[in-house]
């Protein structure tokens, strides 16, 4: 990682003092007489200050110094280290959970390129009807083998890679998955067929449009739009094919999925002006390319949607325009009109002069350790893994050395749109197919993560000829959530005086990555609290998908500009949580909350008491545990072990879902089968190694007949009592955009979370062991107080570093 901090500097009024330099200020330009006067004044101030220090010291005030006991002032503190207790490199040899290294990716690629039977070409030289590497990642060993290794000290399972090939050279054209081993020096490869897949072979049409295909499609667009150059310039003031260097050129982007039927490869594209924030400058032109099959000479542009009218060829569209039919003019926005799509500050200045906001730093250094992929934070231990399709996940999550979950991972981020025109009525996105790891771009210190965070590079192999370094693509940091984890102010009801205060700061460790999937930015957090709670949070921001305003689409959204509309959509996120409560043999219960009426209680004679109660409901099979939430039947979701706490209650963990949305698309219609997991707010299945994900990288382009159909996981209705269980959790939010979504959606109000909480797992609150608690009790006669802060002091042993963002995006850093 590059150096993201400047040298420390101290600012005193308008004098800026850099280390190793003399201060420069207008005061240093005073003449000699003025200088003596200033020196005398400073001497008097210093003398008064020393007298004040003596008086304060002699008064017996024992308040701690805010700086280190070994220093006299903030300026003498050393800078907080960026590297203490942190080792960013993977362990050598890698652990079972370490992502593929750059060298391993290169070794696998080179090995496969030498296998003549695969007929592979480098992707830069590949054609649609050839064979090339599409994606690469780690092939995790079976869970049983991993547990035997990390718990039983058996031999580490062989390290392997999973490589996805595009085989346009075969008949029928298909996608293949190969396991390549052993790493780091592969010598063998075997074709992989997952028994949970619903398609064999996997059709090539299920692949996302990659750079091989996109190159051909862009040439078709250039050729066809050149025919209509006068239409484009007459309607929009600019063209497409020869527009390089002209401000606000037209640019085209394709919509997913590529068709309404399984196997279809017909993609709609919509045109917008290439200004900053181009997402918000649609012009109302949409075209469709038919790119079915591998014979690219047969590919065509066969539909044009212009001025709310559908044409069946470019020629038909041009003829109508030339005859004065359906002509439309969308004037080029002026500079002021273009500002609404930018992040430039505008509006009244809320604070003049501008002042810095609060910052996060560790006054005595980091309280967590990182070695390669392994993280240790206070009583937590876990491994971080970067999985191509769905990004960062965590494995072997332990609290006090007891495993709580084998895996917690994002599976899918989906968006389903509604609208009238081809764009809005077609769009349904399943972002795991876009490869979230390849969309996890550089995080900005002090904005995306606190500047004191640890930033990690990752390596991605997707749609490239080699590993691609994703600089600072995820971060780890500890911070204060801004609300106590727990607190109470005890007081005397008679005189109102306090008797004690107890509280604790909610310091947490956060693992964060952000993925920019075209217009939307998603921020994903794994949050570890000191009371044994794991929290997963998905936040949506970035630009809304916008279309050119028309009266038909007005039923589906609101205007965010005079000629721009943003339409209704639903965000859906699916997570996999492989829960292991004191082992792999667990049970799943719902604690169903009900209303009871009682008139038999002797202390309620003559009255009826309506009150809540709950019933424990053991779920025996997968179908019983596929939950569609109903507000009239509230419930807890509890995983239990066969061990009990000190009070004889089964030890367990429960799920709390703070962000649910109903899937409004009926089951088995349109693109819904590709995200059948969204039918359930939580579903529990018996764990199987082959059922490793609720989705696949093929779901986006063939959601109608998906390769992985989550519904099949629950259809076999297996027993789930005393089994190794997996919870599949769905979070969601309906979004009807509004004018405040310009230029982009705010994370406020767009954060969804679920939590895995101890439930009778401990005999008391686990955070009582934390050093971050404080207890305050009054001294006799309320003359002061005694404070128990568990040995902590208020000293600072290092100073925060200065933030410098000028190296952001620097490919050499």
Automatic annotation (TrEMBL):
PTM summary: Topaquinone (TPQ) is generated by copper-dependent autoxidation of a specific tyrosyl residue.
GO BP term, example: amine metabolic process
GO molecular function: copper ion binding; primary methylamine oxidase activity; quinone binding
UniProt EC number: 1.4.3.-
Active site: 431 (proton acceptor), 520 (schiff-base intermediate with substrate)
Positions in coiled-coil regions: none
Protein name from the UniProt record: Amine oxidase
Organism encoding this protein: Lingula anatina
Gene name of the encoded protein: LOC106161605
């Amino acid at each position: 990682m590059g150096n993201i901090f400047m040298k420390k500097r101290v600012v005193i009024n308008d004098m800026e003092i850099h280390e190793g330099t003399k201060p420069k200020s207008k005061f240093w330009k005073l003449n000699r007489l003025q200088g003596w006067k200033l020196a005398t004044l400073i001497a008097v101030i210093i003398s008064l200050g020393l007298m004040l220090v003596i008086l304060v010291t002699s008064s017996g005030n024992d308040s701690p110094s805010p700086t280190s006991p070994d220093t006299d002032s903030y300026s003498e503190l050393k800078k907080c280290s960026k590297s203490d207790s942190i080792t960013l490199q993977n362990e050598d040899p890698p652990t079972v959970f370490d992502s593929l290294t750059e060298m391993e990716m290169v070794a696998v690629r080179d090995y496969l390129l030498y296998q003549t039977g695969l007929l592979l070409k480098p992707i830069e030289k590949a054609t649609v009807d050839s064979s090339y590497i599409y994606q690469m990642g780690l092939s995790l060993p079976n869970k049983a083998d991993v547990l035997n290794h990390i718990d039983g000290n058996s031999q580490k399972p062989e390290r392997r890679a999973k490589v996805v090939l595009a085989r346009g050279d075969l008949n029928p054209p298909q996608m293949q998955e190969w396991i390549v081993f052993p790493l780091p020096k592969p010598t063998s490869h075997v074709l992989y067929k997952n028994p949970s897949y619903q398609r064999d072979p996997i059709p090539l049409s299920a692949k996302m449009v990659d750079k091989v295909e996109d190159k051909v499609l862009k040439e078709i667009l250039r050729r066809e739009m050149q025919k209509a150059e006068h239409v484009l310039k007459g309607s929009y003031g600019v063209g497409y094919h020869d527009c390089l260097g002209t401000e606000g050129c037209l640019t085209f982007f394709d919509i997913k999925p590529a068709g309404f039927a399984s196997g279809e490869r017909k993609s709609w594209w919509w045109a917008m002006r290439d200004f900053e924030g181009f997402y918000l400058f649609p012009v109302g032109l949409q075209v469709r390319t038919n790119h079915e099959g591998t014979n690219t000479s047969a590919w065509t542009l066969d539909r044009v949607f212009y001025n709310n009218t559908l044409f069946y060829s470019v020629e038909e569209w041009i003829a109508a325009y030339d005859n004065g039919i359906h002509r439309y003019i969308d004037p080029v926005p002026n500079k002021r009109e273009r500002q609404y799509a930018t992040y430039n500050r505008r509006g009244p200045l809320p604070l003049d002069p501008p002042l810095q906001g609060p910052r996060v730093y560790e006054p005595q250094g980091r309280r967590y350790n990182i070695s390669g992929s392994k993280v240790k934070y206070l009583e937590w231990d876990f491994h971080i893994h970067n999985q191509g399709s769905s990004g960062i996940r965590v494995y072997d999550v332990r609290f006090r050395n007891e495993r709580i979950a084998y895996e917690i991972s994002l599976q899918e981020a989906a968006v389903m749109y509604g609208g009238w025109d081809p764009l809005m009525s077609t769009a349904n996105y399943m972002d795991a197919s876009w490869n979230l790891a390849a969309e996890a771009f550089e995080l900005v210190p002090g904005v995306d993560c606190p500047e004191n965070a640890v930033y990690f590079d990752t390596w991605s192999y997707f749609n490239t000829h080699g590993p691609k370094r994703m600089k600072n693509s995820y971060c780890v940091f500890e911070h204060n959530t801004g609300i106590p984890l727990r607190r109470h102010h005890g007081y005397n009801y008679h005189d109102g005086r306090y008797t004690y205060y107890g509280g604790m700061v909610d310091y947490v460790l956060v693992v964060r990555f952000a993925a920019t999937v075209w217009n939307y930015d998603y921020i994903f957090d794994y949050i570890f609290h000191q009371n044994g709670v794991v929290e997963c949070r998905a936040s949506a921001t970035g630009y809304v998908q916008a279309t050119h305003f028309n009266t038909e689409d007005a039923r589906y959204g609101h205007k965010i500009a005079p000629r721009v509309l943003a339409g209704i959509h639903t965000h859906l996120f699916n997570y996999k949580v492989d829960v292991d409560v004191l082992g792999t043999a667990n049970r799943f219960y719902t604690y169903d909350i009900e209303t009871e009426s009682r008139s038999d209680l002797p202390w309620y004679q003559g009255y009826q008491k309506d009150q809540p109660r709950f019933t424990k409901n053991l779920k025996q099979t997968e179908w019983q545990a596929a939950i569609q939430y109903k507000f009239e039947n509230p419930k807890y979701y509890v995983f239990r072990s066969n061990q009990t706490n000190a009070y004889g209650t089964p030890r367990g963990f429960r799920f709390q879902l703070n962000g649910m949305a109903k899937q409004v698309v009926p089951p088995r219609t349109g693109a819904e089968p590709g995200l059948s997991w969204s039918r359930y707010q939580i579903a529990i299945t018996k764990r199987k190694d082959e059922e490793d994900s609720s989705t696949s990288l093929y779901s986006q382009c063939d959601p109608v007949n998906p390769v992985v159909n989550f519904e099949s996981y629950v259809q076999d209705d297996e027993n789930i009592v005393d089994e190794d269980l997996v919870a599949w959790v769905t979070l969601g939010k309906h979004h009807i955009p509004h004018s405040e979504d310009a230029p982009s959606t705010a994370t406020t109000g767009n954060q969804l979370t679920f939590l895995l909480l101890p439930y009778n797992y401990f005999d008391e609150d686990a955070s009582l062991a934390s050093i971050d608690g404080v207890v305050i009790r009054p001294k006799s006669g309320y003359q002061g107080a005694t404070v128990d802060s568990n040995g902590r002091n208020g000293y600072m042993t290092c100073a925060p570093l200065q933030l410098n963002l000028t190296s952001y995006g620097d490919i050499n850093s």
